[in-house]
Write a structure and sequence with these properties.
The complex is a heterodimer of chains A (320) and B (280). With 320 residues, chain A is mainly alpha-helical. Chain A is 63% helix and 0% strand. Chain A contains 14 helices and no strands. In chain A, α4 runs parallel beside α8 (182-206), α4 (89-119) runs antiparallel to α11 and α9 runs antiparallel to α10 (224-235). The relative contact order of chain A is 0.13. By secondary structure, chain B is an all-alpha fold. Chain B contains 14 helices and no strands. In chain B, α4 (55-61) crosses α14 (245-277) and α5 (68-102) packs antiparallel against α11. The two termini of chain B are 32 Å apart. The chains are: A mainly alpha (320), B mainly alpha (280). At the A-B interface, α1, α2, α5, α6 and α8 of A face α1, α2, α5, α6 and α7 of B. Chain A: Keywords: Cell membrane, Membrane, Transmembrane, Transmembrane helix, Transport.
Chain lengths: 320, 280
């Protein structure tokens, strides 16, 4: 602080000095507060956020009811785009794929992530090292990770080599070219990359469970499963809410892995809503129709996110 | 009761084996990128290369290679866009969150609510009008446009993290600086800004990773331009390499190195950022 500002001391003599009880700061304290005069500090962020998030989303929803191609004029066509979606088997298939992937992703990342978190919570000597290693895939780009797995699933790849080595030669195949198995392969890659993420969220929750509580319950004769169900689960409820909501949203939005692993194939067997939105809008230039699909995806995400929050939060009333 | 028993030892061994299995893709990635193509196709994928070769990397990165310029350019573009976006998110996010957290007026709670809703709002729907708007003003295919878009898209996250931090920050420092005659701006730049570095670290790591690894947005906004980010350049290049796994894996390994090096040095901060930043 420069000497000149100190000598000016405009605020000397305000009642602030007298009113300084030792209690922690609350909103009622008058001493340091920012009033109307500083709203413009938030202005650049608010304008950018309104433009990039709200304005664009609102106009996207608007175009969903038009037949715009991205250039020239457009007509209002009401719900025609949405009717077209339901009549197109490939898009209905993409919707089902999206829901299947999201459900599988939600279940596997959370069950495995929680299992890893419990195993690495305390006791093990190598727990910090193992946590660090298991979290590593999370920081990598899904595209890069998908290319590694594309080789693993390839005909000449390690998975078929392994099957050949253990005498299951008849199971060898081009995994990503199988209409029935390709979706499962995409799921494996998504889960593999994100187990570390849910694990870390659950570790943060488990850290709030006092060991004494579990010990006391154990002394009272509660088995491991009973302790988990009656003590751990209620106490990590906030982590469950966050991890399940985030993984569900992430699962519904899956795009990178599909594009890198299968490109949506074979024969549309792994198309998701996000890849269809991309292709319709930016490859085939059907902006209005693509916007309608994006609106469907967005509404699904919002409904699931809100329902998930309600379902996982209300039970304990802990909130966050 | 939580002593190191025989069961703990068994669990420890099981977890080490499970972790090693989980890391197998990394092992395959590394050994394959040092093999020749005939060896990739003939040897077991898990076997280390008989004669490790750097040819794949030199084919990709040597100045004579047709692709090296593209890869290095993509690396620099990714760095530029990520750093620019982080700066935007720290400057705009912290100032906005500061007034929103320190003011108790109605407008500030309402504005904060807008930021909070924007976090869960899916981005797909907005991408298309954003693209048209950006094209109109000439921001498509430019790294500056990308910085602006990423900053706008991730500001809700940044404001949310900073506001949570400022709410927990006692006002005592700011009060005494004010009593010493500091202006609001001086209080922020000299007192608050240095104190908020934990929140800045969280914002930089979370937002930086999202921007660095983002594929969808840069695929759309930068397609066909000279500015390609690493994921998009990799995607395009791998498409032209058709099953030359040795070259593909050398490229993938090179693309992963910057973030992995970061991770090795700051893994604590990464994990804390993910566990804490998304929760509060």
């Amino acid at each position: 602080m420069s000497a000149s500002t100190r000598t000016v001391d405009r605020n000397a003599g305000t009642p602030a000095r007298a009113a300084r009880p030792p209690q922690p700061s609350t909103a009622r304290r008058r001493t340091y507060k920012m009033g109307h005069g500083y709203w413009w500090w938030a202005l650049p962020a608010v304008i950018l956020m309104l433009g990039v998030v709200y304005l664009s989303t609102a106009s996207g929803a608007f175009f969903a009811f038009t037949d715009w191609t991205g250039i020239g004029s457009f007509n209002f066509i009401g719900f025609d785009n949405f009717v077209r979606i339901t009549q197109n088997p490939e898009l209905v298939g993409a919707l089902i794929n999206t829901l299947l992937l999201a459900a599988g992703f939600l279940i596997f990342t959370n069950v495995l992530g929680l299992a890893f978190a419990i195993a690495l919570n305390r006791g093990l000597k190598t727990r910090y090292l193992l946590r660090t290693l298991l979290f590593m895939p999370v920081v990598l780009s899904p595209i890069a990770v998908s290319f590694v797995w594309k080789f693993i699933f390839a005909y000449e790849g390690p998975l078929n080599q392994f099957l050949g080595a253990v005498g299951l030669k008849n199971l060898q195949q081009v995994w990503l070219a199988s209409p029935t198995l390709a979706l499962g392969c995409v799921l494996v890659v998504m889960v593999w990359q994100n187990i570390g993420f849910t694990m870390v969220l659950y570790l943060a929750g488990l850290a709030t469970v006092p060991p004494e509580l579990e010990e006391a319950a154990a002394l009272d004769g509660a088995g491991a499963w009973t302790r988990f169900r009656t003590i751990v689960v209620p106490m990590i409820q906030p982590s469950i809410a966050i991890a399940s909501t985030l993984s569900l949203i992430q699962g519904l939005r899956v795009f990178d892995q599909v594009l890198a692993l299968t490109g949506g194939g074979p024969g549309g067997a792994t198309e998701t809503l996000a890849t269809e939105v991309y292709k319709t809008t930016f490859v085939y230039q059907q902006f209005g129709f693509g916007a309608a699909m994006a609106l469907v995806l967005s509404v699904i995400i919002l409904i699931f996110a809100i329902a998930q929050q309600a379902a996982t939060r209300d039970r304990t009333g802990i909130g966050d | 009761m939580f002593q190191y028993t025989r069961r703990t030892l068994i669990l420890e061994i099981v977890m080490i084996v499970v972790t090693l299995l989980m890391l197998l893709p990394f092992w395959i990635l590394i050994v394959t990128s040092f093999k020749t193509l005939p060896e990739v196709l003939s040897s077991p994928a898990l076997a280390p290369p008989t004669a490790p070769t750097f040819d794949n990397f030199s084919t990709l990165l040597s100045p004579e290679s047709s692709q090296s310029a593209g890869i290095i350019q993509a690396l620099l573009t990714s760095i530029l866009i990520t750093v620019g976006s982080i700066i935007g998110l720290v400057v705009l996010g912290s100032t906005a969150a500061y007034v929103l957290a320190r003011s108790t007026r109605k407008w500030s709670t309402r504005t904060f609510f807008l930021f909070a809703i924007a976090i869960i709002l899916p981005t797909q729907l907005g991408t298309l009008p954003l693209y048209i708007g950006a094209k109109e003003v000439g921001l498509v295919g430019s790294p500056w446009g990308m910085m602006l878009i990423y900053t706008g898209m991730l500001l809700p996250l940044s404001v949310f993290i900073y506001a949570g931090f400022f709410r927990r920050l006692p006002r005592d420092y700011e009060e005494s600086a004010t009593l010493d005659g500091a202006s609001r701006f001086q209080v922020f730049s000299r007192v608050v800004f240095p104190l908020m570095s934990p929140a800045t670290g969280t914002v930089a790591i979370l937002a930086g990773l999202i921007v660095w690894n983002d594929f969808f947005t840069s695929l759309i906004f930068l397609s066909g331009s000279a500015w390609q980010t690493l994921p998009v350049a990799m995607y395009n290049y791998v498409g032209s390499l058709v099953s030359q796994w040795n070259l593909i894996f050398a490229l993938v390994l090179v693309s992963m190195l910057p973030i992995l090096i970061f991770y090795v040095f700051a893994q604590r901060k990464f994990i804390q950022g993910f566990a804490g930043g998304l929760k509060s």
